[in-house]
């Protein structure tokens, strides 16, 4: 009897405990998506004035002319171009750092680590104002070039760390084997190392692209009169943000969702294949 | 080795070259990226430090004369804003931790095969531009917005009830903005806890609360502190949330720095204020490194 009672109590306690946490987690997810839902819903709002804050009816007209505002389209173009360039540069440089750190022991590694940590942890206001100070001191004109310089700088550490995490499971014996079989260092990298780290490199590149596209604070310090998408939106808040911003934001969000689903799918397939290979 | 012994001259030369290449390789790999960081991260910070000790103004020019009064004057003049930064940033960090920890715990321990799917879902909203997300919160929390409007219409809330322009709205917005920086390290530290430790604690008759208190929570501490660091530091200095969600009386120090640079062009004072943040960051990082090393911040 007593044992049954204890068991019953245990069970009921587990039952309460077992729904609270998942319910809570799903509530957190609702909270995280709330502003996204607002953004998407207000892309369909049939607003007439400059303010797009209250619901006035359903329309698809903003989706017909998402690029109707020339300065907004130009800012979006600047954003896409600068973020893509910065992504290409920082992915290359960050991957090189990750390879060096993974493969070699060398003097100065501690300093390198500290610089990477400081770069990630430092406040954007501090980095932005420091860069501006430097550009002013050396009379470097602010604009597209300085935006690229800044965006590459703050995405290198994210790339280096992401690729390094991927390299952590990489057996250096594979490279040695390739070289023992007569591969040149370049062949070894192209045929062995690179295919293995490629998923990590792609993930790092996407992360770099996302943070460059999204950055407001640092970019606003070094942009001069050039507008990027976030800068344009921020400027527009004074007058009222047009629904086109919601439309473009929705496109960017859907693009991100699509890419991550594709990546997740590819990874699942890859894992399944690896398991089958191991079984067979 | 055999080859070296039979052909000493050529062998030694090759060996020397190989050794030189081996020694130089890491530096060659690091040079471009490290150089970029040196030029556009380390050097600017030095420029900031130097400028913070200058005096003069935009018209007559600036002069480096170890003018430490920029610091004392700046902190004194803007102490309310610095206090706001500490208050709102601190509240935001606590809120982010309280919101993230249980969710990270459930995903790491109980989401089973759907673990990575949940992690992906939690991170998806951050594909939307930070400025748009914050703007959406402004709409959501508006005095007659989608949440409070209906509640006021049916009389559940008084008409003058508002959340916007309060410290709570700012802290809440900051917690939302930097949520991934809390969730990811906490999740990572929970995820890698050895399940056998949990099982053995249960085998030794610990109940679930004790297992959490004595095994899981202590092992997740490095992640918690990494999260506090990575959320707190940007939250202290952010001014976008305050701009959209705060009011006249909630200005934070980040805003002051931005204004001093962009509007007042008082570069020495602005640099001093910014460098105060840098010193705070350094202090926190040193403390963290002292206790946990850098592993949980950047992986190994």
Shape, principal axes of CA atoms of chain B: flat
Q: How many separate structural domains of chain B?
A: 2
> Largest sheet of chain B, order of strands side by side?
1-2
In DSSP terms (H or I, runs of 4 or more residues), the helix count of chain B works out at 15
Continuous helix count of chain A: 11
> Mind telling me the C-alpha Rg of chain B?
26 Å
Q: Say what the CATH topology of the domain at 70-241 in chain A is.
A: MetI-like fold
**Helicity of chain B, as a percent range:** over 70%
State the total count of DSSP E strands of chain B: 2
- Morphology of chain A: globular
- State the name of the first-level CATH class of the largest domain in chain B: Mainly Alpha
Strand content of chain A: under 5%
Strand runs of chain A, count? 0
Class by alpha and beta content of chain A? mainly alpha
The ordered string of helix (H) and strand (E) elements of chain A is HHHHHHHHHHH
Structural class of chain B: mainly alpha
Q: Look at the structure and name the CATH superfamily of the largest domain in chain B.
A: MetI-like
CATH topology-level name of the largest domain in chain B? MetI-like fold
CATH architecture of the largest domain in chain B: Orthogonal Bundle
Please give a handful of descriptors for the protein shown.
heterodimer, A: 280 residues, mainly alpha, MetI-like fold, B: 300 residues, 15 helices, flat, disordered N terminus
Protein model, in words:
The complex is a heterodimer of chains A (280) and B (300). By secondary structure, chain A is an all-alpha fold. Chain A has a domain at 70-241: MetI-like (MetI-like fold). Chain A has eleven helices and no strands. The relative contact order of chain A is 0.13. With 300 residues, chain B is mainly α. Chain B has two domains: 2-51, no CATH class; 78-298, MetI-like fold (Orthogonal Bundle), CATH 1.10.3720. Chain B has helices at residues 2-6, 8-51, 69-77, 79-110, 115-123, 130-140, 148-153, 167-177, 179-191, 195-203, 208-237, 240-245, 253-262, 267-292, 295-298; strands spanning 54-57, 61-64.
């Amino acid at each position: 009897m007593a044992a049954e009672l204890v068991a019953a109590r245990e069970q009921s306690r587990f039952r309460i405990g077992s729904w609270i946490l998942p319910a809570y987690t799903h509530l957190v997810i609702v909270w995280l998506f709330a502003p996204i839902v607002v953004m998407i819903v207000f892309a369909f709002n049939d607003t007439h004035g400059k303010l797009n804050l209250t619901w006035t009816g359903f329309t698809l007209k903003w989706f017909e002319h998402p690029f109707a505002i020339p300065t907004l389209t130009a800012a979006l173009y600047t954003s896409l171009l600068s973020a893509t360039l910065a992504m290409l540069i920082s992915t290359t440089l960050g991957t090189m750092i990750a390879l060096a750190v993974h493969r070699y022991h060398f003097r100065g590694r501690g300093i390198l680590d500290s610089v990477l940590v400081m770069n990630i942890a430092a406040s954007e206001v501090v980095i932005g104002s420091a860069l501006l100070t430097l550009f002013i001191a050396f009379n470097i004109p602010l604009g597209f070039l300085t935006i690229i310089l800044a965006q590459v700088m703050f995405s290198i550490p994210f790339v280096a760390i992401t690729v390094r995490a991927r390299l952590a499971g990489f057996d250096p014996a594979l490279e040695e084997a390739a070289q023992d079989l007569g591969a040149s260092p370049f062949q070894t990298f192209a045929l062995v190392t690179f295919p293995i780290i490629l998923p990590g490199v792609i993930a790092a590149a996407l992360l770099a692209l996302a943070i460059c596209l999204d950055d407001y604070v640092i970019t606003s310090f070094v942009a001069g009169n050039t507008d990027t998408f976030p800068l344009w939106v921020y400027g527009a808040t004074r007058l009222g943000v047009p629904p086109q911003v919601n439309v473009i934001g929705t496109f960017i969000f859907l693009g991100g969702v699509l890419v991550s689903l594709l990546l997740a799918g590819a990874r699942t397939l890859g894992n399944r294949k690896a398991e089958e290979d191991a079984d067979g | 080795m055999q080859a070296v012994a039979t052909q000493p001259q050529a062998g030694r030369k090759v060996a020397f070259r190989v050794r030189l290449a081996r020694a130089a390789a890491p530096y060659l790999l690091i040079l471009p990226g490290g150089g970029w960081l040196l030029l556009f991260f380390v050097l600017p910070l030095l420029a900031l430090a130097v400028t913070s000790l200058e005096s003069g103004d935009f018209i007559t020019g600036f002069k480096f004369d170890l003018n430490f009064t920029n610091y004392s004057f700046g902190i004194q003049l803007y102490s309310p804003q610095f206090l706001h930064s500490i208050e709102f940033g601190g509240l935001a960090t606590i809120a982010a931790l309280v919101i993230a920890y249980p969710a990270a715990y459930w995903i790491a321990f109980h989401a089973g095969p759907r673990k990575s799917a949940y992690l992906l879902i939690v991170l998806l909203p951050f594909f939307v531009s930070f400025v748009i997300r914050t703007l959406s919160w402004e709409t959501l929390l508006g005095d007659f917005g989608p949440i409070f409007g209906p509640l006021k219409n049916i009389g559940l809330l008084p008409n003058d009830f508002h959340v916007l322009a309060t410290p709570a709205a700012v802290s809440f917005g900051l917690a939302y903005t930097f949520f991934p920086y809390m969730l990811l390290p906490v999740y990572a530290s929970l995820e890698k806890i050895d399940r056998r430790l949990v099982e053995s604690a249960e085998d030794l008759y610990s109940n679930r609360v004790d297992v959490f208190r004595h095994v899981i929570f202590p092992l997740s501490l490095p992640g918690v502190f990494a999260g506090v660091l990575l959320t707190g530091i940007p939250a202290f200095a952010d001014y976008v949330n305050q701009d959209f969600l705060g009011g006249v009386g909630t200005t934070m120090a980040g805003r002051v720095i931005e204004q001093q640079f962009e509007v007042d062009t008082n570069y020495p004072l602005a640099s001093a204020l910014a460098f105060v943040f840098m010193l705070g960051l350094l202090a926190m990082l040193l403390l963290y490194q002292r206790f946990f090393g850098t592993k949980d911040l950047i992986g190994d």
